[in-house]
Amino acid sequence: GENVEQHPSTLSVQEGDSAVIKCTYSDSASNYFPWYKQELGKRPQLIIDIRSNVGEKKDQRIAVTLNKTAKHFSLHITETQPEDSAVYFCAANDYKLSFGAGTTVTVRA
Amino acid sequence: GAVVSQHPSWVICKSGTSVKIECRSLDFQATTMFWYRQFPKQSLMLMATSNEGSKATYEQGVEKDKFLINHASLTLSTLTVTSAHPEDSSFYICSASPGTGEGQPQHFGDGTRLSIL
Q: Confidence class of residue B53 from pLDDT cuts 50, 70 and 90?
């Protein structure tokens, strides 16, 4: 099965700075890589996703890059704001989603 | 669009009780739904894949007789925790996708916080 590793486990950034979270996956058959944001006690919310035929995707302050050869993908958040503070999960899909362990992002005002 | 509703949001009950959790896709049909369990400060652990009209597929280590899944229609899946004990206390979340096949976005319900006394 798929194994997804996520780093770092915690990330503290100053408001306005960028945050980068990296994930690696093991199954070369995976072709879909979503990122979820989860606030305390709430549902995971899909914030961006990328498919294996695309190397980069951007949505306002959020971008995701994918390197299929190296089997890693990253989430980039620019101009961070306090409301970006949450737990972020990467996932890889080979039909079922396999989640990373999560990154707790804290944006300091 | 792609709204998933989960009910109840919070359950507190005595040990030995069975608890049913409902997951509904409100504005789309879902052939497949997924049930996850999440412990505090941990990731989502897939418990089972719920397939409409057929038996659920359980992940390794998940007791199918303990966690009964029924997917009777294209918009409703239920998870029943039978004879619940304190160790079953957790956050249970379902998800569903409006598409079919691989690589479809999954949308999550609000989750059910289950506390067994």
A: confident
**Which residue carries 């704001």 as its tokens?**
A81
Whether B42 contacts A102, CB under 8 Å: yes
| B34, B106, B112: best to mutate for the A interface, most A CBs within 10 A | B106
User: Which of A31, A41, A43 lies at the smallest CB-CB distance from B102?
Assistant: A31
pLDDT for A53 equals 83
Kindly write down the DSSP assignment for every residue of chain A, as one continuous string: ---EEEE-SEEEEETTS-EEEEEEE--TT--EEEEEEE-TTS-EEEEEEEETT-SEEEETTEEEEEETTTTEEEEEE-S--GGG-EEEEEEEESSSEEE---EEEEEE-
pLDDT in tens, A53-93: 889 999 999 999 999 999 999 999 999 999 999 999 999 98
**For position A14, what pLDDT does the model report?**
98
Q: Which residues of A touch B103 (CB under 8 A)?
A: 31-32, 51, 93
